[in-house]
From TrEMBL:
Residues 1-116 are annotated as: Disordered. Its main location: cytoplasm. Residues 987-1061 form the U-box domain. CDD domains: RING-Ubox_UBE4A (cd16657). Pathway: Protein modification; protein ubiquitination. It comes from the Eukaryota. This is U-box domain-containing protein.
Length: 1076
């Protein structure tokens, strides 16, 4: 023993004879084997030591002598590898030697092969002594390799009492091992002694060559007894005179060592355990105790720690199907009291918990994130990514072993995964409490491993999609979807549908498919959402820190207040750095292209499967969906959880946005089919924001990626027949639908959605097929088209007005803040905040304005006649006249701001685009009359100012300028005629006036319920935005109005009469003048 090591505690008092006999019988029951003779009489025993029988001196239990209290002679064996000695006692040997135990023995001490004349008894004595490093010679303390030997005082005494040869035999080996193991200090495990013995006996067995002449029998018995005593050391340490010690009485620490180390668990040791597991009831508890020990220790570790030995140990154990089954049946396999305890308390939880997203890891890899170099951030992310990939591959291997071992372990691990997803439903709540949920890192690992389990059926031909049974959800599924929002069914309809239990059993593909869907929803998709929220939090905290730092000078003369400020500042900085570190780590995990490629493959299968359920067909990307879908929606589709579609669009949108190169070789036409199908048949999906995400998916798919200027999807959207036939109508339809989403933010939400729709239309507009489709739409589906144009005009009018009215305010605030000024610090801060708000709004509205005007340019060029229909032409004219007045009229001086490009505001370009709209629509006489009749904004001088600006800056071609001058003349003539007509008609009778527009009605109609008479163009224009009677708010369609035929005839006659009278009066005036 080392000098500084505390001496082991004294052996306990020896039990009485009856107690000793009970222990002996229990051991013999455990150790019973073909080479163990029947026991008839026990011998003397010292503390914790039992003897084996002697064949020459059979004894009975009745003749047991009182136990003698003796002191064991304990010697400490060094930690070096063991070389078997040729001698085990002081008695002369016949020259036989045991096998070499050390993998790298000293050549000078290497034993010679046994001679032909060596007796089996001598071999037995020498070999057993070398293997177990024991001796019966009190004067011999080390072997020839200088390994310390344990002197077996009690066994020698027993042999002497029986007058038996003082030699080690396999019949006495049990007593020898018991006495030797009992001599191990109690601060060390018995396995510290027995496992090296096991390795030596296995090397001896493997070294046997040719005819064994009984040697194999000796070694096999030594092997059997060594393993049995290992089991006793773990399960019944009292057999060695020791109190139970959970830290020592387990295989855990030995499994963590390399198998080649002296105390490491070798594969043959595990193979022996597996061979005994059915017949020895102690093996399973020993195994489970070891695995639970691994799990509990790993639960206290992070990726910063040396966690890999734990993974390797579990992998080694799981190579045995019997071990896997035993582990799966352990009560702790799934025992946890809450979602956060799953990763701590269940057996596999700590293995899945290891992640770069653990707080200690993010802090270690991204220390001082505010000042961290971007290159170093990328390097750290890549390092963590590679480490995580290796870890997840190990987890997948372990999981596959559970799945493939048999139905029991397969069902247990599927139950465990289901327990995880079902316990984390609140992860998708608006305000979730992380303390009540599993961690991001844990759930990300679960998601990735389930993706891996799906691998065998994720082929690119979708050949196994048919095996995914939607009826799984009606067979008491593991995945709980009861509280989930359904695609298009309310709670009562869903409950009624799932109340009927489907016949049959679900296959493994269906089980793992729905588990993986849920894992994506609560795992990776929740983490994606968290990353977005984290960006907002970081921005808020950054602004807060800047604000507090700006306050420092105020407290320069107040040490106490300055100290409070510094304390708060440190707290905010700490939180900010924590958020930033976590963000960098999360990006490292989520931007893993290998992981996301597998996720994408899964989502492609989900897409094809979902289209099959909706269309009730065997759809694959090489086939076409027949649109529109059936008006009768399949119940199986309606009652699916909403997250089925949400997972698809969320995953694709994330990849499109952050790592689009993953999509280049992985995406097919199925994603375009999905978007177009459910935008065309939008009634299939209840949630308008989920439908909006389909638009976002198309929008992100048109972002330029490397050499693809139209993005990943752009070329397919432009060129595929399915898109050519249905995409434009689908986008226009949803443009109309988002006018009303039902949310309190619907007014502002629609602009963002429509902005994305504009971007997609701009991408595909190069194909003339879409221009032809738009023309066809305006002729065959006029009401639909007019609603679309009306909303486009509404948006254009609103965003233009909002954007252009912000610039005068920005102009004034910039002038007020421009030095020198007399503002106090508080006033200046208030003005700056007000300016920042106005600038942000102006930037947003100008972005929308530019896109809306761009759409109007495209559409008016293709469909000028459609934009000049009576129902909308006056609104179009009013919008363009008002904008022209703002851009070039007296108010234009207030539009001058510092750095207008900052707000995407280019007045000259905007003016040029509106001139183009004028030219596009100028072919219509209706438009000419509407512009001239715009009493609010039509001002001939505005047109002249526009001409000067266009010429000065060469904004339009000479051809366009000539057309513009001609158009101005036509406006002037039309205005003169308008004024003449107004003068000719004089006072219009009230019954002939439109009650809303106060103009002479041309085509009066009667509203069915309110009985109000109104011009058809007025009510039609109103119904484009609001399907209600404007006078009593009752529902109304244009088909419901009644023609006022008689009134129309009266108006026509009255107008003709008044025009004739006016003409006659002018003729009379002309004659009078001529005569005069």
């Amino acid at each position: 023993m080392d000098d500084d090591q505390q001496p082991p505690p004294a052996p306990p008092e020896a039990p009485d004879a009856e107690k000793m006999d009970q222990i002996r019988r229990r051991r013999l029951e455990k150790l019973s084997g073909p080479s163990t003779p029947k026991i008839t009489k026990p011998t003397e025993a010292s503390a914790g030591v039992s003897s084996s029988p002697s064949p020459s001196a059979p004894i009975t239990a009745e003749t047991v002598e009182p136990a003698v209290k003796t002191k064991l002679n304990i010697t400490k064996a060094p930690s070096t590898h063991i070389a078997l000695s040729s001698k085990a006692s002081s008695e002369p040997s016949d020259g036989g030697v045991g096998p070499t135990a050390s993998p790298q023995p000293n050549p000078s001490k290497k034993q010679a092969p046994a001679s032909v004349g060596e007796s089996i008894e001598a071999y037995e004595h020498t070999t057993l002594g070398s293997i177990f490093r024991i001796t019966l010679d009190p004067n011999r303390t080390v072997d020839s390799s200088n390994h310390k030997l344990i002197y077996l005082r009690n066994l020698r005494q027993e042999l002497e009492d029986e007058q038996a040869p003082i030699m080690l035999t396999k019949e006495r080996l049990d007593s020898a091992i018991l006495e030797a193991a009992s001599a191990i200090p109690h601060n060390k495990g018995v396995l510290d002694y027995l496992i090296p013995c096991w390795k030596r006996v296995m090397r001896a067995l493997k070294s046997l060559r040719g005819y064994a002449s009984g040697k194999d029998v000796i070694l096999k018995e030594a092997k059997r007894l060594c393993m049995s005593n290992c089991v006793f050391a773990v399960e019944m340490p009292e057999f060695f005179g020791r109190e139970p010690n959970s830290a020592l009485d387990t295989l855990t620490s030995y499994l963590l060592l390399e198998p080649t180390e002296e105390r490491g668990i070798s594969p043959d040791f595990l193979a022996e355990m597996e061979a005994r597991i059915e017949e020895d009831e102690s093996i399973k508890p020993m195994l489970r105790k070891a695995v639970v020990g691994l799990s509990q220790q790993l639960a206290m570790m992070t990726m910063n720690d040396n966690y890999k030995p734990y993974i390797h140990a579990l992998k080694a154990l799981c190579q045995s199907s019997k071990f896997v089954a035993a582990i799966a049946e352990d009560p702790l396999f799934q025992m946890a009291t809450s979602a956060p305890r799953i990763e701590m308390d269940t057996i596999l939880g700590p293995f899945f918990r290891i992640s770069p997203l653990q707080a200690e890891v993010t802090k270690e890899y991204f220390a001082s994130p505010k000042t961290m170099d971007k290159g170093k951030i990328r390097t750290s992310q890549e390092a963590l990514r590679l480490t995580l990939q290796t870890h997840q591959n190990d987890l997948l291997e372990i999981t596959n072993l559970f799945v493939r071992t048999g139905p029991i372990s397969r069902n247990k691990i599927l139950d465990w995964f289901a327990y995880i997803v079902n316990s984390n439903h609140k992860r998708r709540a608006l305000r979730s409490n992380p303390a009540e949920l599993s961690s991001d890192g844990f759930l990300m690992n679960v998601t990735v491993i389930l993706d891996g389990l799906c691998g065998p059926f994720l082929d690119t031909t979708f050949s196994k999609v048919g095996k995914i049974d939607v009826e799984y959800l009606r067979r008491n599924p593991r995945v709980d979807i009861k509280d989930e929002t359904k695609l298009n069914a309310d709670e009562s309809a869903s409950t009624e549908y799932y109340k009927t239990v489907a016949s049959g059993t679900s296959n493994f593909i269906s089980e793992v498919f729905f588990l993986t869907l849920a894992a994506h929803h609560y795992g990776s998709e929740a983490t994606n959402t968290m990353l977005k929220s984290l960006d907002r939090e970081i921005k808020y905290m950054t602004d807060k820190v800047k604000e507090m730092e700006a306050e420092r000078p105020k407290f320069a003369n107040s040490p106490h207040q300055l100290a409070v400020l510094e304390g708060n500042l440190k707290k905010y900085n700490d939180i900010l750095e924590k958020y930033m570190s976590f963000k960098f780590a999360a990006e490292g995990v989520l931007f893993d292209k290998v992981m996301q490629a597998k996720s994408l493959s899964f989502m492609r299968v989900v897409t094809v499967w979902l289209l099959r359920i909706a269309t009730q067909s065997d759809y694959t990307p090489d086939k076409t969906v027949n649109l529109p879908l059936s008006a009768q929606q399949p119940d199986a589709f309606r009652c699916l959880p909403e997250y089925v579609l949400e997972d698809i669009v969320g995953n694709f949108n994330f990849i499109f946005r952050f790592i689009p190169d993953v999509m280049l070789s992985a995406v097919g036409d199925e994603i375009i089919a999905l978007c177009i199908t459910f935008l065309t048949n939008s009634e299939y999906i209840k949630n308008p924001y989920l439908k909006a995400k389909l638009v976002s998916l198309l929008f992100h798919g048109t972002w330029p990626v490397y050499h693809r200027t139209k993005g990943v999807l752009g070329d397919s959207l432009v060129g595929t027949k399915f898109a050519n036939d249905h995409l434009l109508h689908a986008l226009m339809k949803f443009y109309i639908e988002v006018e009303s989403t039902g949310a309190h933010t619907q007014f502002y939400d629609k602009f963002n959605i429509r902005y994305e729709i504009f971007q997609v239309i701009k991408c595909i507009w190069t194909n003339t097929v879409y221009q032809e489709r738009l023309t066809q739409e305006s002729k065959t589906n006029t009401e639909f088209f007019l609603r679309f144009v009306n909303l486009l005009l509404n948006d254009a009018t609103y965003v233009l007005d909002e954007a252009l009215t912000k610039f005068p305010k920005i102009h004034d605030l910039q002038a007020e803040l421009r030095p020198p000024n007399t503002l106090t610090p508080q006033e200046r801060a208030a003005r700056e905040e007000e300016l920042a708000t106005a600038e942000g709004q102006a930037q947003s509205y100008m972005q929308l304005t530019n896109e809306t005007v761009s759409m109007m340019k495209l559409f008016t060029k293709t469909l000028s006649a459609s934009f000049t229909m009576p129902e909308i032409v006056e609104r179009v004219a009013a919008m363009v006249d008002y904008t022209l007045d703002t851009l070039v009229g007296p108010k234009s001086l207030n539009l001058k701001v510092d750095d207008p490009k900052k707000y995407q505001f280019d007045p000259r370009t905007l003016l040029s685009e509106f001139i183009e709209i004028y030219l596009n629509l100028g072919v219509s006489e209706n438009f000419i009359e509407a512009v001239a009749g715009d009493g609010r904004s039509y001002k001939p001088e505005n047109f002249d100012r526009a001409t000067r600006i266009l010429n000065r800056h060469s904004l339009r071609s000479a051809e366009d300028m000539a057309a513009w001058e001609k158009l101005k003349g036509r406006f002037k003539v039309a205005k003169e005629l308008e004024d003449q007509n107004e003068e000719d008609l004089g006072d219009i009778p009230d019954e002939y006036l439109d009650p809303i527009m106060a103009t002479l009605m041309k085509d009066p109609v009667v509203l069915p319920l309110s009985k109000i008479v109104i011009d058809r163009s007025t009510i039609r224009s109103h119904l484009l935005s609001d399907p209600h009677d404007p006078f009593n708010r009752s529902p109304l369609k244009i088909e419901d109005v009644v023609d006022a035929t008689e009134l129309k005839a009266e108006i026509v006659a009255w107008r003709a009469e008044m025009m004739q009278k006016a003409k006659q009066a002018r003729d009379d005036d002309t004659m009078d003048t001529a005569e005069g």
